[in-house]
Design a protein that fits this description.
This protein has about 300 residues and is α/β, with parallel strands linked by helices. It has a single domain, classed as Spore Coat Polysaccharide Biosynthesis Protein SpsA, Chain A (Alpha-Beta Complex), CATH 3.90.550.10. Helices cover about 25% and strands about 25% of the residues. A hairpin with a 2-residue loop joins strand 8 and strand 9. Helix 1 packs across helix 4. The two termini are about 30 Å apart.
């Protein structure tokens, strides 16, 4: 069975300040998502499902439907504030949806096969999609999921700090835990993060999550129960978010379950900050010049 690609594209990204998901970076106006979809098609994915907000669905579909027609099946899911909230009982002061884990849960009715999850605004590289597709076709089960692991020093921005999920893995490359480190930055070759005013060094070659996950569809049942409990427990925390790592951590706590961390040599890039945009364009141009991609993806 060919896998599906689920793209998290519902956020407006306050630090970047615009709808970066549909900004053109390629020579023919390609978005970062275009390159991810192109790589997914080459790797053998059969369908792409976009998780978006209903209020920009029309603009979003106009950007993707025509160029993807006949190349890959498409689907759309709307992440709404009330989605999967028991009885639609949203806390009065809550104004935004519930995070990446909630976004994945919103796809429960349209995804029935092993699937990968990625961010809309991250470039992951062909190697990552090949490895993900291979796992989803040959290794994914109800008890075995995967995470594509990136080398920390290949995921930093030169224009500010970033947040990264630093992975602890065992000798079999199984995930033991993810520690979310905020304010990570490069300081003359050393990678540091700050916690309670203290600067702490992280090995530059640490494996980190860039939110490229590989899941079995059985995740939806578990995530639904966990999300309902999360909503009940966080009624007073109106900014609390139900992140994918919360689902992953709960999963590996059960005996017999494991999440493989599949390393990739790929260089990540993305648009965390507005100032990242010229570098992203330069990186895409370099990949086109090296023959990794054609100058017009969809011809």
């Amino acid at each position: 069975m060919k896998p599906t690609l689920l793209i998290l594209a519902a956020g407006m990204a306050s630090r970047y300040g615009s709808m970066k998901q549909t900004e053109g970076f390629g020579p023919s106006g390609e978005t970062i998502m275009d390159y991810s979809i192109y790589d997914a098609i080459r790797a053998g994915f059969k369908k792409v499902v976009f998780i978006i907000r209903k209020d920009f669905a029309e603009n979003f579909k106009a950007n993707f439907e025509e160029k993807l027609k006949g190349k890959i099946e498409t689907g759309y899911v709307y992440q709404e504030l009330t989605s999967y909230v028991p009885d639609g009982d949203v806390p009065e002061l809550r104004t935004k949806p519930w995070g990446t884990g909630h976004a994945v849960l919103c796809a429960a009715d349209v995804v029935n096969e092993p699937f990968a999850v990625i961010n809309a605004d991250d470039y992951y590289g062909p190697d990552a999609f090949k490895k993900a597709a291979d796992f989803l076709k040959n290794g994914c089960t109800e008890n075995t999921w995967a995470l594509i692991g990136y080398q920390l020093n290949k995921t930093l921005s030169t224009f500010g700090t970033v947040s990264r999920g630093v992975c602890k893995v065992d000798d079999g490359l199984n995930l033991v835990e993810i520690n979310e480190r905020t304010s990570i930055y490069n300081d003359n070759g050393r990678v540091l993060y700050e916690e309670e005013g203290e600067k702490i060094e992280v090995p530059a070659d640490s494996s980190v999550s860039m939110n490229f996950w590989c899941f079995h569809p059985s995740i939806f049942k578990a995530a639904k129960l966990q999300f309902e409990a999360f909503v009940k427990a966080n009624r007073e925390q109106v900014k609390a978010e139900f992140f994918i790592p919360l689902i992953a951590d709960e999963f590996i706590q059960h005996k017999g379950n494991n999440i493989k961390v599949i390393p990739t040599s790929a260089q990540w890039f993305g648009v965390t900050y507005k100032e990242d945009a010229p570098q992203v364009k330069a990186s895409v141009t370099s990949l086109v010049n090296d023959g990794v991609y054609p100058s017009s993806l969809w011809g």
